[in-house]
Amino acid sequence: MSVGTFAGEPVQQVKDKVHQLLVASGSGFAYAEPEKPVTSRSADDCVVALCDQWYFDYGESVWKAAAEKCLASMETYGEETRHQFQVVLDWLKQWACVRTYGLGSRVPWDSNYLIESLSDSTIYMSYYTIAHLLHRSLDGSKPGPLAILPADMDNAAWDYVLLGKPLPAGHSKAKEMEILRRSYQYWYPVDVRSTGRDLVQNHMIFFIYIHSALFPESEWPRAVRINGHLLLNGEKMSKSTGNMLTLSESCRLYGADATRVALADAGDSIDDANFEMQTADAAIRNLHTLMEWIVSAKQALAKLEETPSGSVQIDDIVLCAADMPFTTADRIFDAEMDDLVLKTAEDYDRTMYRNALKNGFYSFVNLRNWYVEFTSTRGMNPALVRKWIERQVLLITPIAPHWAEHVWQTIMGNTGSVMDLRLPADMPTATNHSLLMAGDYVRKLAKAVRDADIALQKRSKKKGGNGKNTAASAAAADHTPVVDAPKSLDVFIASEFPSWQETVISVLKENYDASSKTFDDKALVAAMGKKGVLKNKKAMPFANEIKKRVDLIGSAAFDRALQFNEADLVSEAASYLKSSLGFARVNVIRTDAVGDGLTDAQAKVAQSAVPGEPGLLIFNA
Description:
By secondary structure, the chain is of the alpha+beta class. It has helices spanning 11-24, 61-73, 79-91, 117-120, 125-134, 155-163, 174-187, 203-214, 247-254, 256-265, 277-306, 328-349, 353-374, 382-396, 401-411, 433-463, 499-510, 521-530, 539-553, 566-581, 600-608; strands at 55-57, 94-96, 98-99, 106-107, 110-115, 193-196, 224-227, 230-232, 235-236, 273-275, 312-314, 317-319, 471-473, 487-493, 512-513, 518-519, 585-590, 615-620. Helix 8 links the parallel strand 6 and strand 7 (224-227).
C-alpha cells in the first residue's frame, strides 16, 4: 500500500484490515453471492438466504499450521493430490457448518441446529475400531459381546475410549471401556483413506483439520488415496445412452479375474479411470495363453528331471541341461526378473495397480519372451524357468487371485494357498544396474541391426537390385547388398571413446551438485559452448543421455567404463542375432586388434564405433 492508514504494508496482509475499516466506518458493507447458479440434487434452483449460522474457523493460524503439518506427514500417492490439498488449505477460511433439518449431530451448545454431514462425518473411521464390540446388528438393536448399551456411551466414555481421558470413578462399565480403548489403540490411526477427488475441497480437508485438532500426532491419518470417476470405453457411463456396465454384469461377461485386470489397467491417478472392454477381452486370452505356457514348461521341467544332463524341447520351450553354468544372458534375465519384482512390490505398496500390472504382468511376460528367443539355440536355464513361473504367479495374485490359485495348486501341485505367498527372503535389496545395462545394450543392438537391415532393403528396392555381391555400412552405405542373397553382419567393438565425449563428461562433472543431485544447466551449456563441443550435433543428445544415467545411479554414471565385457556379450548374442534377424554369419571384431586388414567399408564403419555403440556392417555372405 502506498497511501492511507496502512501505507507501507503489503496488500496481501492488509486486505482483512481494509475490509474491517470500511465496514466500521460505514463506507461499505459485507456482500456475497454464488460464483454461478447453484442447482440442488433434486434439480431445483437454489436461492441464497441470510440465516443465523455457526462456522468452523478453519483459517485460524494455529489450527491451520497443525493441519499443514498433518498433510506433510501423510502419503498422498502423487504430488498432484498433495498440491490440491495445499491449495484448499490456502483459501479455506470460515465454513458454515450447521443446518436446521436432516441428518446430523445436534450442536452441543445450540440444540436448534444440526452439524451438516460433510463436517459431521470426519472421524467416523474411529468408530470402526470398536463397532464390532458395541453391536451385532447394523441398526444397533442387538448389543455386542460386551453388552454395552447406548446409554453407557456418554461423553465421558467416548473421551476415555478415543482420547484416553480418565473415566469417572466408579464407572459401571470400566472393564468394558478398557477393552474398547485397547481395540481403538490397536487399530488406529487410519492407514489409508480412499475417496473421490470431488471431496478434496471439503470433506477430506475437514478430515485432516478435525484429526489434527482432536488426536495426538501419533494418531493422525497416515495416507489418503484420491481417485477420479470411472469411464467406460473412454466415455462417461450413462443409462440413457446405454454406455453402462455394472460390476456383476462385467463378472458375468468376462469373469472376476479379467474384470480385475481391466480395472487395474484403468488407471490409478486423480484423473478419471477408463475401463476398456477390449482390455477385459484381452485379459481372458492373455491369462489362458500364459497358463498353457506354464503347463508346457512344467512338462519340459519334468522331462528334464529324467535326463538332467541333456536338453529338452516341448513346443517352443527349449531347456538346457540342468548342470549348465549361467551365461551372461541367464544373469541378465535373472537380474531383470528381480528388478521387476522389486518394482511391482513397490507399486502394490503405493496402490499403483496399473503400474503393478505393467511391471508384474505385461513386462514380466515380455521379459520371458525375450529370454525364450535369446536362448532358442542353447536353451533356457531350468532353474530360471522355475523361478519365473513362481514369481509370475506371486506378482499377479493380488489382481487375478482365482487364476493364480488354480495355477499354484492344480498345475504346479502345491498344497498351500497362493494367498500365503510372500516376497522371497532371498530377494536382493537393490537392482543390479550393470546387468540391466547389459540387457538394455543387447536390445538396442538388436534394434539397431534390424533398423539398419530394413533401411538397406528399402534402398535396394529403390535401386532395383543389381544382383552383385557388394558391401554396405549400416550407418552410411555407399553400396547396397542384394536383398535375397545370404547376409552377414560385422559388429565392430571399440575400446576408446572419442575426445569430444570425454570433454562433455568433464563439463557435466564440473556442473553437477552431488548434494542436491542437480545440474546447473545454464553453466553447462555455456561451458560446452566455450569448449567448442556444441558444434557437434551429437553433443547435447549425448549429454542428456548421461544426465539420465546420473539420475538413475548417481555420480557413478560419469565413469564411462562399461559394467560388462562388450565383446563377450555380443559374441554370446551372435546366435540370437543370426536366428532372429536371418543372418548367415555374425562376426564380432575388436577395432583395437584388427590392424590394417580391413576393407574400405569395414574401416569406415569401425571408425564410427565407440564403447557401448558398436559399428555395424551388413553385406552379402
